[in-house]
Specification:
Strand content: 5-15%
Number of domains: 1
Number of strands: 2
Bound molecules: zinc ion
């Protein structure tokens, strides 16, 4: 378990949206080894809103980036 990490990436709701995030995270991990790091930075929370989308944080892209980070950490090398 990572210390200081946002626990929200550890679990995804078993909903259509949750599965969409999981699929996007798997694609991101497959085609862009560290692409999620830039997404995490660009879509970080800024006082409750995403810095890029300006929607309520976390935005979909941040959720995907966090999920990809989670999968990346767990992936056996
Ligand atoms: Zn965003």
């Amino acid at each position: 378990m990572l210390s200081g990490a946002d626990p929200s990436w550890a679990t995804l709701p078993d909903t259509e949206n949750g599965r969409a995030i999981e699929s996007a995270a798997l694609l991101l991990l497959k085609f862009s080894e560290k692409g999620w790091e830039q997404l995490l930075f660009e879509h970080r929370d800024d006082d409750g809103h995403c810095r890029s989308c300006r929607t309520i944080s976390p935005c979909s892209l941040l959720l995907i980036a966090q999920r990809t980070q989670f999968l990346s950490v767990r992936r056996p090398s």
